[in-house]
Amino acid sequence: MKRTSNILVVAALAGGALLAACNTGEHHRKPGRIYMPDMYESRAYEFYNPRLATMKPVEGTVKRGELLPYHVKEGDTTLANTIKNPLTITEADVAEGKRLFNIYCGICHGTALDGNGPLYKGGDGPYPAAPANLAAGGPKSHYTQGRLFYVMTYGWNAMGSYASQLDRSQRWIIAAYIKSVQDGSKVPAPDAAPTAPAAGPAASGGDTATIKK
Amino acid sequence: MYRRVSIRLRKQLVSVLILCAGLVLSVSTTVQAADPAKGKALFQANCASCHNVHKQLTGPALKGVEDRWSDKKLLHQWIHNSSSVIASGDPYANALFKQFNQVMPAFPAFTDEDIDNILGYIAVEGARDPNAKAATPGAGGAAAEEGGDNSLLFGIITLVLAVVALILMQINSNLNKLAGDKEGVATPEPVPFYKNKAYIALGVIVLFMIGGYFTIQGAIGLGRQKDYMPEQPIHYSHKVHAGINQISCLYCHAGAEKSKHAMIPSENICMNCHKVINEYHGPDLFTAEGKKINGSAEIAKLYDYVGWDAEAKKYTKPGKPIEWTKIHNLPDHVYFNHSQHVVAGKQQCQTCHGNIQDMDEVHQFADLSMGWCINCHRTTKVQFADNKYYSIFEKFHQEVKDGKIDSVTVEMVGGTECQKCHY
């Protein structure tokens, strides 16, 4: 009787110490013990393999349900200005555009499109370059939806490409949203005949500066 | 007499002259003095997209720009129409054009006064130490973990009470013995407590329960990683990005809406901002061990991974993946889909991941156990009305209409079926 109780106590204490004590290390830096490791350490995919992790889809791949590829080359802003929005924009699309704009663009360009998002904060934020003011009457208000799409796809000046975060239809929806805010309309009018880029206010710049590539 | 007059006249003349000179000077200074406040507004509206006073962006850093141009007139002409200066063959202008490979847009609408105001602002701003503002607040390192855990207090109270109880029992037995002695009743010699069977049995049971508790807790914890906080290759602070700078989670983890995985963002997403943000000026960062982190050096690590040359402002070598350590790990026999929870379920990231925006180093907030999943599926309501997806649940629709139930949970539409997650 006494012996069994001793064994039970020792087993319980030792088991507890073994399982609980040295599990995750100081500051929880270790993941802890696992059983059946092959269920946790997946063999299905090797992470960060330099060959696999940096691979891009095969050239010309079109995702299911995705718009057809955009063929304007980087730097060809004249052609980009003339491309029309291939989507038929509804009010729901504009609302979705607003949501997407506030997530992906508003952080710099501001949710009011005034180029003063939380990252810039009138020059006090961490971002040193002033984001473009996209509001009505602003220097970019003459941009067509095609041009806005181009900028989101390839980036412009300090801005990077958003093609990896936003698929093509999302980018067109955002372009439509920006236009709808500038026009003050619920659904933006489809781009009229392409305005010559030089017709924009000269002081706003932008168009005169072409990247030579 | 004549001489006196002439001296007087001369004096007056001199004073008038001085006055005139003073006037002219004061007028000219009001014309010359640039207004940095006006200049700042103009600079931010027109120049700041491409220029920073201290940093090179799309265009050069403008600190000391007036000293770099030999002729102020030429600088004015450059701002009015830079192409004309390049065409004139000015060597400095051509060198700039070569370096940046880009023509600065013309600003013909600026008056000379406007340009002077801007240059005045640049001079004032340039004299200021850009790192000075980093010294403000920021000493929020030692935010002690407060409150919450009272178990230590309860433990001490229990121990004290146990000791008191023991003493009382001892006193009781002593008094009993004294009373027995007085009445002449012979009490047996007391057994010391370490030989007392009752005490031993009590001790054994207590020890067994403690040991068993830890054994069971440990066994349950096998394969669970709650609070796991690995060291990452770059000290990326979610608090700085998602908390202080208010970047939406989806900005980087764009896959959370579109796919099974939220995605570790690819490096080009980091470079969207870090192409130009190459220094850290926020509050001090510390690791869990208390080591101070140099934020700018961590950004430099990113540049090394992506192969970006911060001086030349271009990618100079092929990038390599940053080997982040995965924290939230579900075994292969569990199916979990982010987009399902974020888009259809409209769950906030914080529901499962905790207050990520307050974490410098991310740790696993939930234990990701099956019980934890199921509990949430039992209590969470689905959007049942006006949702074509659930139109086949006619019984529930009828019951909602009859007022028998007011809402439908995930469990009721099959959210706790084994095959939903294990197949």
List the main descriptive attributes of the protein structure presented here.
heterodimer, A: 213 residues, mainly alpha, 7 helices, disordered C terminus, B: 423 residues, Cytochrome Bc1 Complex, Chain D, domain 2, two-stranded antiparallel sheet, 4 strands, elongated
In brief:
Chain A: GO terms for molecular function: electron transfer activity; heme binding; metal ion binding. The complex is a heterodimer of chains A (213) and B (423). By secondary structure, chain A is an all-alpha fold.
Describe this structure in words.
- The complex is a heterodimer of chains A (213) and B (423).
- Chain A is mostly helical and 213 residues long.
- Helix content of chain A is 37%, strand content 0%.
- Chain A is built from 7 helices and no strands.
- Chain A starts with a helix and ends in a 30-residue tail after the last helix.
- In chain A, 33% of the residues are buried.
- By secondary structure, chain B is mostly helical.
- Chain B folds into 5 domains: 1-26; 36-131, Orthogonal Bundle (Cytochrome Bc1 Complex, Chain D, domain 2); 174-222; 232-367, no CATH class; 369-423, no CATH class.
- Chain B is built from 18 helices and 4 strands.
- In chain B, a hairpin with a 5-residue loop joins strand 1 and strand 2.
- Chains A and B meet through helix 1, helix 2 and helix 5 of A and helix 2, helix 9 and helix 12 of B.
